[in-house]
Design goal:
Blueprint (H helix, E strand, L loop, with lengths): L1 H21 L4 H29 L5 H22 L7 H33 L1 H28 L4 H21 L7 H28 L4 H22 L1
């Protein structure tokens, strides 16, 4: 059963990315949805899950501290990548910035798979609940991975390559749990850091970019819709 869920995460992520590639001429609308989805995953999935896991061993405030650390770390990475952007080098730096965001999503997807595998070690019921929650936002993960590259003027070929890595990441995450495991509190801290990453990416990158030179009303609606979809998907999954 666990292998079936791993394969399902691959196709859910892949389909989301292919959707973004097919409709890249409507990128501002997709970006609006992606912005909401990224923030939604952070607020409704990563943050509550990290606090719950960390609280089993530490004070819950430690999770919020690591959320802030994740936010700051990605902000520093973002500034380093773009601080020297000028002239002919600007496009190159934009591509690097998009690559950093896509790699963050790939690592997050690996952790999704890790979470599925560890949950099944607790019990099949817990494993199924976690797997369904992961599948609920994998489609958006695929969209977001492609969007990070396309919005930073990267090539479709590059976006598709990274999409494949993102689709494979949860599969390898699941398989890795056959060989090692981490404590739930440690996993919670890792999730908190990535929650901080996603909050920064959504608020400082995707939301402003989706509104840039495009009708703000529609993109705002799409951002709210992205958050709502993730919220409902996670609630129904649980």
């Amino acid at each position: 059963m666990i292998i079936a869920f791993a394969i399902a995460t691959f196709f859910a992520t892949l389909l989301g990315g292919l959707f973004a590639l097919r409709f890249k001429d409507k990128l501002h609308i997709i970006l609006g949805f992606s912005a909401g989805a990224v923030v939604g995953v952070a607020l409704f999935d990563l943050l509550p899950e990290s606090i719950e896991l960390v609280s089993e061993k530490y004070d819950s405030s430690l999770a919020t501290t690591f959320i802030a650390i994740g936010f700051i770390l990605f902000m520093i990475l973002d500034r380093i990548l773009v601080i020297h952007a000028h002239g002919d080098h600007e496009h190159k730096d934009e591509n690097h910035n998009g690559l950093a965001g896509a790699i963050t999503l790939i690592i997050h997807s690996f952790l999704d798979g890790l979470g599925i595998g560890l949950a099944f070690k607790v019990s099949p019921v817990v494993g199924i609940v976690v797997a369904v929650a992961v599948l609920a936002h994998d489609f958006s993960d695929g969209i977001n991975t492609v969007n990070f590259i396309l919005k930073n003027r990267g090539k479709s070929k590059t976006a598709f390559t990274l999409l494949l890595f993102d689709a494979l990441a949860p599969v390898f995450g699941v398989l890795s749990t056959f060989f090692f495991s981490v404590s739930e509190s440690t996993l919670g801290l890792i999730l908190a850091v990535f929650g901080g990453f996603f909050l920064y990416i959504g608020a400082s990158d995707l939301v402003p970019e989706s509104h840039h030179r495009h009708p703000r009303f529609l993109t705002t609606i799409m951002t709210i819709l992205g958050m709502a979809v993730i919220y409902l998907a996670i609630k129904f999954a649980i």
